[in-house]
Specification:
The structure is a homodimer of 382-residue chains. With 382 residues, chain A is of the alpha/beta class. In chain A, 51% of the residues lie in helices and 13% in strands.
Chain lengths: 382, 382
């Protein structure tokens, strides 16, 4: 094994852990918190709840509500201006991946200046960031744990991956009680996002024993508890999905991902598709593409989802992939690209694959993938 | 599940990772490193090797060599004086638990003042500590990962547990190549120390899913690879033991331990016994004591060490404990207290148990244990 690095934030996990938000901000030296969220979280009442908690702890804040799904470069740059103008310090974000990635992007620009596209790729942020407390409202994106930040470059219509250790927030608060206000669709999409993180991190060329155990745990939990969570909406099941999302995030943050996420970023940048929508379409196709290069690892995943091994690693791996396909099909999600992209836009896939091949995630795919091979995968699942 | 916190340092793991020590110190703002180690590590050449690495990176240092096994309060206080007098900043320690715990104790006194006994127990350190880079030379103590610091109070002849999140160092460097210079005895004792961490963290009343998976992974790895490591001394096996030690440390640092460690601290304070010597004597006796209160969890441990389950959780748990006993017996270690303590000192066990019952680790034992019950356990393994 080569040298491997493993970095995660301090995690405060559990029902009611949101109540620690004010204390966390104070512990990081807050005098004026920069609060980031979006309209959906506001509407569900969580922004007001968080403001009440900050107030109770005597923490001042300034609220930046300008978050949209799949955050864009301009929003991040406007947010940084707002941060600096108001003399804010600790950044506290509550929301899904979009709100948290917006907060991270604002942190980069506020302390490093320039344009967010200057930081695309791995390890390009040099100055330390403002302290961050991230509070996830989904069990999926993992932005509250990870060193990743995904921002759309509007001009190029691509989701940029910005990856650096300094993007690991100081504190991640994961309160499963927040999941109770989520729709069934969002719970499914988020869990599938976490599942894709776990799978691609597990087969990544830079996976380590520390990330591998987290990946397998996440896969196991999502297979067991997502169907039950959808059916019962019980807090016990939602909590298990939260644990899975945290585990998957520890894994992918440190092991990175693969070709499927590279494609998801490019597709998402062009068509504003959420990750959770892309994965059921592409993940198993990419796993089949990787089979010869990651047979043993895909067999490990097979063993977890099948709860047994077959006669050979290859059979176990293939049966596991089929089991995953059946799992996706059991939910009300698209399984073909044509369900999400209109026929007239099909020709754009070529340029999407040419972008995806340069995404940082493609570097750690177990099988090197050219844009032509990525295009073949997209055509296979059209 | 209640609210749980999970905090670990940034970990740099792998063969040759020692080479990152200088860069790590610089990243934490070092101008004059306070270097801590002991005579054994010096003799093995690792202190010189570390100095060469610091020199190459242009890092100045001042060397504090005053570490002994089972570090004492006075040493820590002298070390802090030396730190302050020399205007040092980042603390870099290389060694086993003793060197790293000395470094942590020095960090506490240098920034918080007073006597080290003022900080005994949980969460009693208020001011932030100097940045720390800890480099473990054993696969056992876990001090490089944990929020624990164990210092002997000479007057009371007790090992004090000091536990606080700020004791988690900034960076832990784990380089399995360093293990090649270790004796067989030390490799066995260290691995058994890690095993005891994993077992007691797993049955702790504040274990969480994040610590549980680390515990079981560590137990599995130590069972599989300690015999092979002793036999072959191969770097592959030593690396597995390092992974196990890191995993076990992530677990116990966040889940704490149990009655066995409470006893180990008191015995160690009185008789200067290393943890790795105490555990083979006491661990399984404490597991039997806990059986009615942690049957399911002990059955999980049984499943891992037996690689199968028996007809009932209780049978699996008991067979697992027997398997552990056989495992300890397969190494050249003491299995009875009388092999380590002379008959004339046996009467001291009573006062040792009266001290142990107040150790912070005893609070999280699955079965509440009085000093009389602890004494009965000691007599059982006499």
């Amino acid at each position: 094994m080569n040298i491997t690095k493993f970095a995660i934030p301090e995690i405060i996990f559990g029902r009611g852990s949101l109540n620690y938000a004010g204390q966390c901000a104070l512990r990081l030296g807050a005098r004026k918190v920069f609060l980031v969220s979006d309209a959906g979280i506001e509407k569900a009442g969580w922004v007001q709840r968080l403001m009440d908690i900050l107030k109770k702890e005597g923490v001042e804040w300034i609220y930046y509500p300008g978050v949209t799904p799949n955050p864009r470069d301009v929003q991040v740059e406007q947010g940084a201006e707002f941060y600096l103008k108001n003399g804010a310090d600790v950044i506290v974000a509550i929301g899904g991946g979009s709100a948290m990635d917006t907060a991270k992007g604002i942190a980069i620009i506020a302390s490093n200046g320039g344009h967010i596209r200057d930081y695309e790729g791995a390890n390009r942020v040099s100055r330390p960031l403002p302290p961050m407390v991230l509070i996830t409202t989904t069990a999926g994106s993992g932005s509250d744990i990870s060193q990743f930040c995904i921002i759309t470059d509007v001009k190029r219509a691509v989701k940029m991956s910005i990856i650096t250790r300094t993007l690991v927030p100081n504190i991640s608060i994961v309160d499963p009680l927040i999941l109770r206000t989520k729709s069934e669709t969002l719970i499914i999409q988020s869990a599938i996002d976490a599942l894709a993180h776990a799978v691609e991190a597990y087969t990544s060329t830079i996976a380590s024993p520390f990330t591998e155990m987290q990946s397998l745990k996440a896969i196991d939990l999502i297979f067991t508890y997502l169907p039950r969570a959808v059916e019962t909406r019980s807090i016990d099941c939602l909590e298990k999905l939260s644990i899975a999302a945290v585990s998957a995030s520890m894994a992918f943050s440190n092991a990175s991902l693969g070709a499927e996420h590279a494609l998801a970023h490019s597709l998402g940048g062009r068509f504003d598709m959420r990750h959770g929508v892309v994965h059921p379409i592409l993940l198993t196709a990419v796993m089949r593409f990787n089979l010869d290069y990651a047979e043993k690892k895909l067999a490990d995943i097979g063993r977890v989802v099948l709860n047994k091994t077959l006669d050979s690693p290859r059979e176990t791996a293939l049966a596991g992939i089929e089991r995953l396909e059946a799992f996706f099909a059991s939910f009300n999600v698209s399984l073909k690209l044509r369900q999400e992209i209109s026929e007239k836009d099909k020709h754009i896939l070529k340029s999407i694959c040419k972008t995806a091949v340069n995404d940082a995630c493609n570097l750690t795919n177990p099988r090197p993938a050219s844009w032509q091979e990525l295009l073949a995968i997209c055509q296979e699942v059209w």
